[in-house]
Amino acid sequence: MLFNVNIDHVATLRQARGGIEPSVLDAALIVERCKCDAITVHLREDRRHIQDEDLFTIKKNVNIPINLEMALSEEIIEIALKLKPQQITIVPERREELTTEGGFDILKYFDKATSMLSVFKGTGISLSLFIDPDVDQITASKSAGVDIIEIHTGEYSNSSTTDTINFELDRIRKGAILGKEIGLQVAAGHGLNYTNIASIMNISEIEELNIGHSIISRSIFVGLEQAILEMKKLVEV
Known about the structure:
Number of domains: 1
Oligomer: single chain
Distance between the termini: 10 Å
Shape: globular
Radius of gyration: 17 Å
Number of strands: 8
């Protein structure tokens, strides 16, 4: 299981004061020191947390892969082509949302997505789509030519009743199985924490996890390195 740590909210805290602390680079170096598989960062169009300079500073100073989450924006695509991260993950983006609210709708934006993603062909950058665990979305993702689907686990993570949790978990499991069957790598992420991760770990088709907010939240009390290692221990079980 690949374990990627999202450090967006280190930048969120920094941007709250508009200064230089806490350092996003220091966070990235800690992720590397903990021997995680990749650093995940989301360069939003409104630059609410991660800044352009953060990306290139991390790329220059850290030796583990970068998974760049991004909207299908010409501006962000140009930056991604200059950065050359090991992976890009296309996510939906609305300026007024607090956090990503759902998966990218590849059915609705299929032509636009395939056209814009074509610029990455031949670059060696792995292409991923962050999508809901829906049969049609998964099969359309395969047709779009991406390498990876990241299943949106937000509905599962936000569920509070046993029936709803089990329903959402079953959707994720079926989506992961389908993705694997049609030749896609399967990742998962959004809202995963130290408690709800156990059930996701039971889905063998999921090969990669992207986890951020719960780790950064935990780090306030125990430090970032300890928070990462606690999650890493759960992921490696």
